[in-house]
Amino acid sequence: MNKIINGSIESLEQMIDFIKGLTDEAYQTAPKPLFDSSIGQHLRHILDVYMAIIKSEKFEVVNYDIRRRGLALESVRIEGLAELNIIHNWLLDLDETSLSLPTTVQTEVSVCSEQAAQMSSSIGRELCFASSHLTHHLAIMAAIAKFLGHKVSDELGVAPTTATFLRSQQKQSDSSTSATS
Q1: Is there a contact between 113 and 33 (Cβ–Cβ < 8 Å)?
Q2: Do 68 and 88 form a contact (C-beta atoms < 8 A)?
Q3: What is the pTM assigned to this prediction?
Q4: CA distance 43 to 173
């Protein structure tokens, strides 16, 4: 399997396991004042990014400005899991040749006024972005869950480059330990 698709599946499966391990209450709670959004709202935002790619017409224009705020999946955990499974199946079925397809990305670029930009990209690049975006939000979601008293793996929300660094540190530590034994 292609490494971009495989990496995306790994990240998505990490998210699925995390969401499955939550209570419904934790999924829908926004513990203010520390966090303004719930785990479910963060998940909807992540899913919007993937759905923008999936629903783009023949991958021609990926419009990240299409947001689906207020959906049941923001507060109903089983709804969030259902859409995660849709994306998971889409990734499993994604043709590797699709990754090199050119696309145009459309997104708003200003918080002061409505200004959208369009730029060239590829489906592979946008899938990398979606996976990285998922990891970033998973770190925030894990912090929310910890704040709410859930036990959360330290591996959640760790970027691939950080995971590589941590593995290299562990190898160095293991080598030092075996050399002194």
Answers
A1: no
A2: no
A3: 0.91
A4: 36
Q: Number of structural domains, the chain?
A: 1
Task: Convert the pLDDT of each residue in 22-75 to its tens digit.
Answer: 999 999 999 999 999 999 999 999 999 999 999 998 899 999 999 999 999 999
CATH code, domain carrying 81: 1.20.120.450
Show the domain range for 141: 3-180
Residues 6 or more apart whose Cβ sits within 8 Å of residue 145: 18, 22, 26, 39, 152
In DSSP terms, 118 is beta-bridged to 106
Question: How many Å apart are CA 89 and CA 157, to the nearest integer?
Answer: 22
Amino acid at 142: A
Q: For residues 177 and 10, what is the distance between their CA atoms, to the nearest angstrom?
A: 31
DSSP 39-108: HHHHHHHHHHHHHHHHTSGGGSEEETT---TT-GGGT-HHHHHHHHHHHHHHHHH--GGGGG-EEEEEEE
